[in-house]
Amino acid sequence: MKRQAGEGRGSTLNETLCDEIRRLLVDGALTPGQRLSESALSEQLGVSRNTLREAFRTLAHEGLVTHAPNRGVFVTTPDMASIVDIYRLRRFIECRALSAAWPSHPAVREMRAAVEEARTCREQRNWQAVGSANMAFHGAIVALADSARLDVFFRQISAELRLAFGLMSDKEWLHGPYVEMNQQVLETFEAGDTTAAVALLEQYLAQSERTVLAAWARQAAP
Amino acid sequence: MKRQAGEGRGSTLNETLCDEIRRLLVDGALTPGQRLSESALSEQLGVSRNTLREAFRTLAHEGLVTHAPNRGVFVTTPDMASIVDIYRLRRFIECRALSAAWPSHPAVREMRAAVEEARTCREQRNWQAVGSANMAFHGAIVALADSARLDVFFRQISAELRLAFGLMSDKEWLHGPYVEMNQQVLETFEAGDTTAAVALLEQYLAQSERTVLAAWARQAAP
DNA sequence: TCGTCACTTATTGTTCAACAATACAAGCGC
DNA sequence: GCGCTTGTATTGTTGAACAATAAGTGACGA
């Protein structure tokens, strides 16, 4: 839906609020499993309880927080099943999007930009930013499929995955190795060898899944 | 996430309310483009404005209603781009889910049940119910992929598509022919010829898309 | 006659305060 | 130690209030 019935561009505090909380979640300021008290958080953020509750509804639908009726809202704790599910979806979506892609699709430009961004951030050892750039790369891959709905769905999944990333301490190991791999995927794809690029991507995702799962298990053991 | 931090099963009016409004939307009691006044609707449904607004956030995130800041909430009007996008996604998701399916997956049982249901509803000429059963069939196909997140995503898309269905008058023509086609897909798949089943499914979706688009254009012309 | 401007009005955005309903914790009897 | 009742804090839901915005209205001037 392009410009449904107006869709005027007002700031609408609620939007701002959602963004703010999302940032808190992705930055790790709020740790998974933590309960988010309505009164406390509304006071801290300077909004009313009702407004906060509206934001919670949006975030809950995005999977970032979990609403337990009559008990409260919690930062979603990624469990193993979620991680497996998310990676299965990523393989499902990304590989197919890449394999059916039009070689000179505008999104390829974004892929390139993301790789560049990741490289410069890596030089500055800003691993959080490297993670963002890597995600942008994969978002661009999904964009190859030319579906607006798929794009927002993938953004959602990415945010949820970042929640899991937040559980781990060694960000360098978590994001660093994939800069090269992304670049390799891109170069292979641009060279015209789509099937090889897809194979690389599949390998990338498998390795990433293993890393995340291992770190999750290590962390969740005690 | 299976049972995140409790997730107790209270009715929580809000849930009920969302279901109620969804039903109104899918049944066509609320027509696309219509503005939903907060005060009017809250009074009509016997809930407070705040509660209704919370429900609106959920429904807006599902794409069933469109929120225009400072202007109000409108029943989403499906445009041509949305229909095309949704069908592209359905081809993307359903075909791949079916082609990679484990032949004795539990969801096959659901597929069979949906076909049965559709047949009986067709005999009673209850086309609305036929539409529901057909959708359940395709939901079962998606379930073959074994991804919880993909399931909810597809449910969302289905609801949005039903909004478009609501624009058309001839429900028999809209839902009737596909009962046979679904059955054919199922039988071919159960016979073990997966590739043929996928081809049939693809054909199904293409024909359905043409029908919907044509009806949409016919309706939107004046 | 037409367009522009300020003004009016209705609706949404947001807050506040209150009460009901529920879940958790503590204390009690056994 | 175990089940039960009681208390308390938090969420669920409501109603009213006010600010902010958008649409409609009508006067005014070219």
Automatic annotation (TrEMBL), chains A, B:
<dbReference type="InterPro" id="IPR036388">
    <property type="entry name" value="WH-like_DNA-bd_sf"/>
</dbReference>
<dbReference type="Pfam" id="PF07729">
    <property type="entry name" value="FCD"/>
</dbReference>
<feature type="domain" description="HTH gntR-type">
    <location>
        <begin position="11"/>
        <end position="78"/>
    </location>
</feature>
<dbReference type="InterPro" id="IPR000524">
    <property type="entry name" value="Tscrpt_reg_HTH_GntR"/>
</dbReference>
<dbReference type="Pfam" id="PF00392">
    <property type="entry name" value="GntR"/>
</dbReference>
<protein>
    <submittedName>
        <fullName>GntR family transcriptional regulator</fullName>
    </submittedName>
</protein>
<keyword id="KW-0804">Transcription</keyword>
<dbReference type="InterPro" id="IPR036390">
    <property type="entry name" value="WH_DNA-bd_sf"/>
</dbReference>
<dbReference type="InterPro" id="IPR011711">
    <property type="entry name" value="GntR_C"/>
</dbReference>
<keyword id="KW-0805">Transcription regulation</keyword>
<keyword id="KW-0238">DNA-binding</keyword>
<dbReference type="InterPro" id="IPR008920">
    <property type="entry name" value="TF_FadR/GntR_C"/>
</dbReference>
